[in-house]
Amino acid sequence: MPVPEAIDALSSLLGDRLSLSKPDLEAHGQSETYFTLTPPDAVAYPNDTQEVSAIVKICAAHGCPVIGWGAGTSLEGHALAVRGGVCVDFSRMNKVLSVNPEDMDVVIQPGLTREELNQELRATGLFFPIDPGANASIGGMTATRASGTTAVRYGTMRDNILALEVVLADGRIIRTGTRARKSSAGYDLTGLFVGSEGTLGLITELTVRLHGQPEAISSAVCAFEDIGAAVETVIQTIQMGVPMARIEFVDTPTVAAVNAYSGTDLPEMPHLMVEFHGSDAGVAEQAERFGEILGENGGTGFRWSTKAEERTKLWDARHKAHWACLASRPGAIALVTDICVPISCLAQAVEETRADIEKASIPGPILGHVGDGNFHAILLVEPGNAAEMEEAKALSNRMVERALALGGTSTGEHGVGVGKLPYMEREHGEAWDVMGQIKRALDPDGIMNPGKMVRGN
Amino acid sequence: MPVPEAIDALSSLLGDRLSLSKPDLEAHGQSETYFTLTPPDAVAYPNDTQEVSAIVKICAAHGCPVIGWGAGTSLEGHALAVRGGVCVDFSRMNKVLSVNPEDMDVVIQPGLTREELNQELRATGLFFPIDPGANASIGGMTATRASGTTAVRYGTMRDNILALEVVLADGRIIRTGTRARKSSAGYDLTGLFVGSEGTLGLITELTVRLHGQPEAISSAVCAFEDIGAAVETVIQTIQMGVPMARIEFVDTPTVAAVNAYSGTDLPEMPHLMVEFHGSDAGVAEQAERFGEILGENGGTGFRWSTKAEERTKLWDARHKAHWACLASRPGAIALVTDICVPISCLAQAVEETRADIEKASIPGPILGHVGDGNFHAILLVEPGNAAEMEEAKALSNRMVERALALGGTSTGEHGVGVGKLPYMEREHGEAWDVMGQIKRALDPDGIMNPGKMVRGN
Ligand SMILES: Cc1cc2nc3c(=O)[nH]c(=O)nc-3n(C[C@H](O)[C@H](O)[C@H](O)COP(=O)(O)OP(=O)(O)OC[C@H]3O[C@@H](n4cnc5c(N)ncnc54)[C@H](O)[C@@H]3O)c2cc1C
Ligand SMILES: Cc1cc2nc3c(=O)[nH]c(=O)nc-3n(C[C@H](O)[C@H](O)[C@H](O)COP(=O)(O)OP(=O)(O)OC[C@H]3O[C@@H](n4cnc5c(N)ncnc54)[C@H](O)[C@@H]3O)c2cc1C
Q1: N or C: at which end does chain B have fewer Cβ atoms within 10 angstroms?
Q2: Residue B435 is nearest to which of A187, A238, A434, comparing CB atoms?
């Protein structure tokens, strides 16, 4: 759906900050995973909120789709221009607008990445904890309701956004929320836009909650005979109320891939990677309790360390696990799954998934943020091999069915995008229609990231 | 707006569970504060979700207003039947449907009160922490996005509701959310219904997050020379990351009222009442840190205690502070204010409010959940004294203006109801229109708690 009139008007508005170059369009039409290249008709690089509003007004006038773009790291084809239109790339809107150390919050533009934000905060004693591994933009993370390794302690993006500025589908600019820590003043619009994947409006400014850098941090890694023992350790740790900052599971195939990629020498067994945040005494106490629980579950090799280098090495290896898994099958593309279940069902969900993948012809390492009941399989498919892709999709489909049957969700953190859209009705039933009603109320012409999130959009 | 046809049909459906008795109507037409008696035309007592759906369908067919009723403890006239209609009292829907200790959640009906819930949980090692003092229903607390003394540690209702069952304005029954701890599967409908004050639908079932009963609890009370020193102690404590379970401020007039009402003998000075939750060592460490901070601010009389009786006595006195203040001016009615500001502005907000009240002719003790930047004044007015009521409203109005000017909110936890409706436009600007769009999308005929929350409803 090329919309030449809109592009003409945008070109007058933005000059060379409207790009029509093929490489640029293609860069904004790809995804990190298996989806087909689906480029937009143009890429806009706004400088500020007023420009975003002007862009959306032009698009609204011409019925032209508008798709936000942060860092392009989302995994379900969220930003694919399935109906063409204009991609709004927020990379130039990447400023820190104000740091409020006394209130432990920061006001930023959406294109800032989480690593850039933490760089800016280094001297304040504060940090932004949400860590999806990838160096995503805060706007994109908000739009997908991202979480990652530290959500077990610090919550998800839902819990860490105090207020937003949003450009709506008609170009109106609204503010949701205030800098107060809590409010009962009306519908939770902030919460509504968090996780809305650009289908209700574009986020142009964010007030983000910060946390104090912990006085002490210690990390550890430990091995288990089998998946069940590792997951049982997680369940008991959470139930005992040990305030873990991170508790990550990696299965044997993941460990093998990580060893090969990052030069670690972990035994090829299921592992937990953990981190404790607190006071010196608090961290020591947490580590001791965790040590007891894992001892009872036959965990081995537990040794906790407060050394920054060891810690960095461990989490670097964990963060690169995605690339390590990809490298374990040279040339492969990934279908990354993402389910989340009540923690009492976690062992069953992981074990059944592992067994299911073993029966398949493709490799699929499993890893996850198990403290939340959330895990992924990275299903590795030969490009162009339709049979393998079908197998991967069938495995992914069974994972979702398993999650829903166990009272869980089809996506714990990656979001809906294109990949999980087919499951929305099954997960939500009539509540999915309510999402459609809200979408139509705020975007009656369906120009905001069309083809996503709701039925028939 | 009596709607005889609806009442006839409801009477056939519910028999003697539809009440038209004057005392019953009046009991459901009053509020805990200064609002005029505004009774509904009938009170329905449903037994289950299907009946709630049937009630709403009948009301929808006749354009009859439907107003939910939990425990009737809300403070802004939330449930007043300003357009008449049917009050749906959830007192018969007060069952615990399932307790899932492994997953630390519980599924309940909305009429259950927080004290009843904690009674049921006593043997599980788990508890529901949100504590607004009043023995409110969990459905009502969800509808108002309540919080209270423990929100500084455990969050508000927003953070503790995993999933809801809701009857919509057309009688459809939907489920929002799952039992997974987190999800990125679509718009956050759970969050949208939390705090919607019965204007989008009636909550008929809730999946509520629980927390482990802390191994150790200790409490303390301490006095300060002036408000500034007390509030400065709070700010530093929060900024140091001491994980307070409660940190409550009471000013001198409140202390005097509490002493008289509860027989305590606190010095007549501003006080903080605090509580620590954690392991034995953790609680001791927190108390020590807090002790250092308050020492630097000239706090006196700090003595922490792990004795259950002392603790119960302290929090009982705090919880009765509302009634103590009322009793301090016999026969008075209360206009209870509720603002929340960024914590860096808390001292200014409290001190300016105290000074403003001192200039007035009516008493107004101040107290609050200051760890969140949230506080209240209990403005005590002689019934029928229009000049005093006007003075109280002017004071309350200036508090809201102060909160908004400081980047805060017109209500931290009590909600909008009738009392805060006039501030919605000023606080939200065009975002208030968006709330109206959502309301009209889900309740086009405006039958759900009409006259509340949005413009012209
Ligand atoms: C190796 C790897 C590991 C990952 N691990 C995790 C993980 O552990 N946890 C996790 O949650 N995710 C993870 N992800 C996924 C990804 O990092 C997240 O989805 C992230 O939130 C995407 O942010 P982004 O800036 O890249 O957004 P993009 O991919 O650019 O966009 C994502 C969506 O948000 C919309 N959008 C972007 N900016 C805006 C805006 N300003 N306003 C409105 N809409 C906007 C887009 O239109 C699109 O729909 C991982 C990805 C990779 C590649
Ligand atoms: C002494 C005292 C102290 C208080 N302290 C605090 C405090 O510290 N923090 C705080 O947050 N609040 C406090 N409150 C206010 C009050 O307790 C809360 O607002 C509480 O959440 C109201 O719950 P309820 O069950 O009484 O609801 P109700 O008053 O019965 O109803 C409140 C609103 O919710 C709607 N509603 C009720 N049930 C449902 C349902 N099932 N579905 C949809 N809508 C429904 C009603 O229509 C109404 O709009 C206090 C009140 C008193 C009297």
Answers
A1: N
A2: A187
Ligand nearest to the CA of A415: 1
**Cα–Cα distance measured from residue B102 to residue A165, given in angstroms and rounded to the nearest whole number:** 39
For residues B142-179, one letter each, b for 16 or more C-beta atoms within 10 angstroms of the residue's C-beta and e for the rest, the string is bbbbbbbbbbbbbbbbbbbbbbbbbbbbbbbbbbbbbb
CA distance A253 to chain B (A): 26
Cβ(B196)–Cβ(B453) below 8 Å:
yes
Statement to judge: residues B329 and B361 lie in one domain: yes
Q: For ligand 2, say whether the CB of B71 is within 6 Å of any of its atoms.
A: yes
Contacting residues of B for A281, CB less than 8 Å apart = 281, 285
Q: Between B155, B235, B409, which is nearest A178 by CB?
A: B409
Tracing tokens 């996506």 back to the chain, one arrives at A411
Q: The domain spanning residue A309 has which CATH number?
A: 3.40.462.10
pLDDT in tens, A304-358: 888 889 899 999 999 999 999 999 999 999 999 999 999 999 999 999 999 999 9
Q: What is the pLDDT of residues B244-271, one digit of tens each?
A: 999 999 999 999 999 999 999 999 999 9
| Domain boundary residue, one of B46, B63, B89 | B89
- Quick check: CB of B367 below 6 Å from ligand 2? no
Residues A309 and A206 in one domain: no
Domain assignment present for residue A174? The answer is yes
Same-domain pairing of A336 and A274: yes
Q: What is the DSSP letter of B214?
A: P
pTM for the structure as a whole? 0.98
Residue closest by Cα to atom 28 of ligand 2: B72
Number of domains in chain A: 3
B178 to A147: CB separation less than 8 angstroms, yes or no: no
**Nearest-angstrom CA–CA distance, B431 and B409:** 14
